[in-house]
Design brief:
The protein is built from 6 helices and 5 strands. The protein is an alpha+beta fold.
């Protein structure tokens, strides 16, 4: 999601929805980069990878995390939709599927000039040096029915709010089945 910030600065980041039990990466705010007088990069919130959550730990910490993060994610997106004046919604799945065209949209939205070579360089290095190798399978189901229902409720609310503002709704893999 990219938005015009205070005093002409811009906020750019990708907002990936709350971790849906059937979706593949866990929920995260991938980052917020601020363009303007100061330039920062922050990783706002990243849940513990499911592969590192031990069943005993999940009984205590995981329910609290899911309950607080799901509502935080929804209110964060809804606030941007309500108070943002100039918004570009970019879904993580769209970046993965069509990186260069999504980057072109973001560059145009921010009114920044970037050469085609620079965009192709990003495309050619999309895997990066810091990517984890291989997905580890979880050995247990960390989501209770109540957690899944809570997450699904927020997904439906955010999807409707996006569509009401004439944005693309959430990717289908996030929508409740």
């Amino acid at each position: 999601m990219a938005t015009e910030g205070p005093r002409g600065s811009c906020t750019v980041g990708t907002v990936q929805g709350p971790y849906h039990p059937t979706a593949h990466p866990p929920a995260s705010i991938n980052g917020v980069a601020m363009a303007g007088p100061r330039c920062e990069h922050k990783n706002l919130l990243t849940p513990p990878p499911l592969s590192t959550v031990r069943p005993q730990q999940a009984l205590v910490e995981w329910p609290d995390f899911v309950n607080s993060y799901a509502s935080w994610w929804a209110s964060h997106v809804l606030d941007w939709l309500k108070y943002g004046r100039h918004i570009l919604v970019v879904h993580y799945e769209d970046l993965k599927q069509n990186l260069v065209s999504q980057l072109q949209k973001m560059v145009a939205f921010l009114n920044v000039s970037v050469t085609e070579d620079r965009l192709l360089c990003v495309e050619n290095n999309r895997d990066g040096n810091f990517k984890r190798s291989g997905a580890r399978q979880k050995g247990f189901e960390p989501f209770t029915k109540e957690m899944k229902d809570l997450i699904n409720k927020y997904i439906v609310i955010v999807d409707k709010a996006l569509r009401d503002r004439n944005f693309t709704g959430l990717p289908k893999e996030y929508l409740p089945r």
